Amino acid sequence: MSHVIDIYKTLPLKDATEFGLEIQAPKKANAFVSSFMKRCLPNLKKVTADEFLERKAVVLEHVHKKKKRKRNKSKGLTSKERREMKLFEIKADQQRYEMFLPLHDLWKQYIRDLCNGLKPETQPQMVQNKLLKADLHGALVMVFKSKCPSYVGLTGIILQETKHVFKIITKEDKLKVVPKLNCVFSVEIDGFITYIYGSKLQMRASERSAKKFKAKGSLDL
After folding, report:
1. Rounded Cα gap, residues 84 and 63, in angstroms
2. 61 pLDDT exceeds 70?
3. Which residues form the signal peptide (predicted)?
4. Cβ atoms of 194 and 187 closer than 8 Å
5. What is the 3-class SS of the chain, one letter each residue?
6. SS3 string of 65-81?
7. Which tens digits make up the pLDDT trace of 140-197?
8. Angle at which helices 101-114 and 124-133 pack, to 10 degrees?
9. In contact, 111 and 128? CB cutoff 8 Å
10. Half-sphere exposure of 177 (CA within 13 A, CB side)
């Protein structure tokens, strides 16, 4: 059983009057549809439009494919650019010990929360392991041992940490740069005194937080 597909129909007189349209004569309508199909299907020659539509569907509108726009990932500044712009430079008028005491108080609370409260029964080894991975900005440290005698006894608050050095502000309002290598630092908080080898800290703070430290015995400088 064959099915006849109507590709067009005459609009009812009632609907045409409602929309203010003029109904064309059947011959004019057929001529318009035939012309329209030829423009849309220029390769259709041997068969009529009606015969062609009985066999397959025809897409008359061109579908535009949306191109995916590549998002430009914003690149951050390089280390060289940051140094040239002096983004991390601590100005002379800001090199005052008292200015950073609130930072030290925040750091002490951060360590207390990290260690679930520092109590007399807290194991020193656990505190040391936490400090190895902790952010040390704001910590009050002292150089306990060093191959360079001029560093020994230097005490202050850590303001900046890089892979190889600490920048420390002393009580004398002097900014000192102390290398991590060949130095042992002591950190005191709530009666707990921890000694940390600077050689274990030779990495960025973000990298140190994810590192697994192996328990080793004391090392001589």
Report:
1. 52
2. no
3. none
4. yes
5. CCCCCCCCCCCCHHHHHHHCCCCCCHHHHHHHHHHHHHHHCCCCCCCCHHHHHHHCCCCCCCCCCCCCCCCCCCCCCCHHHHHHHCCCCCCHHHCCHHHHHHHHHHHHHHHHHHCCCCCCCCCHHHHHHHHHHCCCCCCEEEEEEECCHHHCCCEEEEEEECCCEEEEECCCCCEEEEECCCEEEEEEECCEEEEEEHHHHCCCHHHHCCCCCCCCCCCCC
6. CCCCCCCCCCCCCCHHH
7. 999 999 999 999 999 999 999 888 999 999 999 999 999 999 999 999 888 888 898 8
8. 120
9. no
10. 6
As a dihedral over the C-alpha atoms of residue 13, residue 18, residue 19, residue 20, rounded to 10 degrees, the angle is 80
Question: How far apart are alpha carbons 160 and 77 in whole angstroms?
Answer: 18
Q: Are 131 and 187 in contact (CB under 8 A)?
A: yes
pTM value > 0.85: no
Tell me the one-letter amino acid at 1.
M
- 111/134 Cα distance (integer angstroms): 8
pLDDT higher than 60, residue 220: no
Single-letter code of the amino acid located at 220: D
Kindly list the distances between the CA atom of residue 170 and the CA atoms of 54, 91, 95, 195, in Å, as whole numbers in the listed order. Answer: 91, 15, 9, 19
Tokens at 92, concatenated: 């002379």
